[in-house]
Design goal:
There is one protein chain. With about 250 residues, the protein is an alpha/beta fold. Helices cover about 25% and strands about 35% of the residues.
Amino acid sequence: MAVIWTGDIDGQSVEVRSAGQSRRLYTEGVFHSQYNPRRPLTGSVWDLLMLPAFFHQQTPRRVLVLGVGGGTVIHLIEQFVDPVSITGVELHALHLSIARRHFHLNQTRAQLICADAVEWVQQYRGTPFDLVIEDLYGGVDGEPVRSVAANAGWFKALLRLVSDDGTLVMNFTDREQLQRAAYFTNQSVARRFANSFALTTPGFENQVAAFLRYPSNGQQLRTRLRRQPGLDYQRANCPLNFRIRRLRQVGSG
């Protein structure tokens, strides 16, 4: 895999690597994004961040992505979900520049905002979003580190931005980190959701949690995916490979 660009952000190394049509973004050795215009599905964690859009009976109209990186999720959302609007918030202007130049994000209709996502969420007073995807991570010694704890305060701040029939999606590095989230420790957080699920993919420890403010289930998700061109995971040429399980709320049996 060839290195086609190098730089740094606040003393942390940043690289863009290529292999054929694929582009990969690394920050301090942490693999942040991957994009191939001929094969947008990655068969990896980024697909999982997009899939909860299909819990909705209707297509989510407004989507917010916190943590743009190279823009993999934005490409997936635009191609397969096709909402009315996509807003992406990214801390580093250099990441946005790289995403536009090397990952074709300039060819999407997403509104990209350079800001601290935590501050932006706390200050936002606009129309809520039908789908909020939170993927806020940095890197330390080549390992991903969550930028903000998934405590009750952060859940409640995010919930202000989620519509009454919307979905909150959060990426966790592993099952242990997910179990420490306020959803499992705080009843006032858990009762704000009608259903919640964790999505995983083989070869990765990540747990992508989908917190729904409306009734749905895994079978409905799978049925809708099979109806979507390119997302029928039962076809041999579809790289989607995921598992789903229901999460139990605080106080449930």
